[in-house]
Amino acid sequence: MPIKSERAAASPYPDETPRSGEPGASGEPNESGESGESGEEVTGAGGLNEQEIEDTLQRTVDEGRRRMHRKWLPLLSTGMVGGIDVGTGVLAMLVVEAKTGNTLLAGLAFSVGFIALSLARSELFTEDFLVPVSAVIARQSRLRSLLRLWIATAAMNLVGGWIFTLLVIDGYPDVHKVAASAGQHYVDLGLGWRAFALALLGGAVITLMTWMQHSTESTGVKLIPAITTGFMLAGLQLNHAIVNSLLIFAGLHTGHTPYGYLDWAKTAGWAALGNMVGGIALVTLLRMLQVPHKVLEHAQNPAPCVEDRGKSQTMVS
């Protein structure tokens, strides 16, 4: 009588082929690094690892659902401290540029704000082009909740940033000239294609930061995209609605600028539109298309609030 191998005997499924996810399953590598019976590998060196992307998407959807189900007080306070945290980056940026005159070095100093944003668990309006949008597309939350999140977070980011930059200008008179000049740069971009292109880049960069941070659970690793993104936004002067708003606010607080709040509103509004298109179209949708089966799996099992609304609409029609 043939004797089964120790490995087969030890398996709780001795008469079954390996299940998906186990070594030796079709198309999956075994312990020796060889692929299963189909002869195909899941990943090559440096290639696509679907499981990692699925895990990232799962964390993103779960976080999006949590964000949109918060009550008003936590939602508003989180948005306000987000504006304050980025304000710490504006403080560092203005002081360094005033002392050195180096825009790139000042941009690196601005990363302080994004480090605070990441470690303190606060939130920016422009970060919400990935996490909650993914949850809505996956039918784990409603569009109405997304709009509520966007409006509340953006408003409180601006309130927190306005207050903090006022304190910066009152406390550091040496940065007045730099602050007025920094705000002038974004106002001078106007409402043309260049401003919109820089806004597309700004939205894509910060949304990519959010995706990278959700791809790991290591706090140390999360700081790397926070630093690089902070540097790119401020050092390369990308058009980011919240960052440019805080810099324009700082300039306005000096009382010596040729631009006013109407100029800020037009500049920030154009930037916000570009950030939204860049973040959603260039990052969020493309990342979700990497694992369409996972998105479909979520969509076929919608959250109760989404499912109930769908049933109600069906009954009405």
Could you provide a short overview of the structure?
The protein is mainly alpha-helical. It has 13 helices and no strands.
Verbal overview:
Helix 4 runs antiparallel to helix 9 (219-235), helix 6 packs parallel to helix 10 (241-254) and helix 7 (176-188) crosses helix 10. This protein has 2 domains: 1-42, no CATH class; 50-309, Glycerol uptake facilitator protein (Up-down Bundle). The longest helix has 29 residues, at 72-100. Helices cover 70% and strands 0% of the residues. With 317 residues, the chain is mainly α.
Which terms would index this structure?
317 residues, disordered N terminus, Glycerol uptake facilitator protein, mainly alpha, 2 domains, disordered C terminus
CATH architecture level-2 label of the largest domain: Up-down Bundle
Output the radius of gyration: 24 Å
What does the main sheet amount to? Answer: none
- How many domains, as an integer? 2
Percent range of helical residues: over 70%
Task: Supply the CATH class of the largest domain.
Answer: Mainly Alpha
How far is the N terminus from the C terminus? 67 Å
Low-confidence stretches: 1-46, 312-317
Estimate what percentage of residues fall within beta strands: under 5%
Find the CATH topology of the largest domain: Glycerol uptake facilitator protein
Give the helix tally: 13
Shape: elongated
The count of strands amounts to 0
